[in-house]
Amino acid sequence: MNNKVQVTFHNIPHSDTIKELINDKIEKLETRFKKITVCNVRVDKPHNHSHKGTEYKVEATISIPHFTTTGHAHNVYMHTAVSDAIDSAAKRVSKSIDKKRGKRGKDSIK
Looking at the domain assignment, is residue 108 inside a domain? Predict the structure, then answer.
């Protein structure tokens, strides 16, 4: 999967730890969704002018055949923002697959 994962850092230096976290999460997703074609993750530190501290913004785009979705997350902890964004996109992929299979409601999501 590593050749399908693109990680971009904006306004922050490259982090091998974050890239490793992203790759680990995507590898786990591949056990659920065998047909992931592309995964793009953008980690950004917007210019904050507030007194709340640094907040990281993460966008994770996951593509499977005939469906692409993006999960977004904001958090003061970069690891949490990355996990939340990927989990959000994965949940949307899961819902799309369930919808195509004709499943509905709570029972359709693992």
Answer: no
- Residue 87: how many CB atoms within 10 A of its CB? 15
In angstroms, how far is the first alpha carbon of the chain from the final one? 22
Q: Which CATH number goes with the domain that contains 31? A: 3.30.160.100
The reply to whether 23 falls in a domain is yes
Type and span of the H or E element at 74: strand 67-75
pTM (global) more than 0.90: no
Report the pLDDT value the prediction gives residue 83, as an integer from 0 to 100. 96
Contact 17, 78 (CB under 8 A): no
pLDDT, tens only, 72-108: 999 999 999 999 999 999 999 988 888 877 766 555 4
Strand order in the sheet with 5-10: 5-10, 38-44, 56-64, 67-75
Helix H or strand E encompassing 79: helix 78-101
Of the CA atoms within 13 Å of residue 54, those in its CB half-sphere come to 9
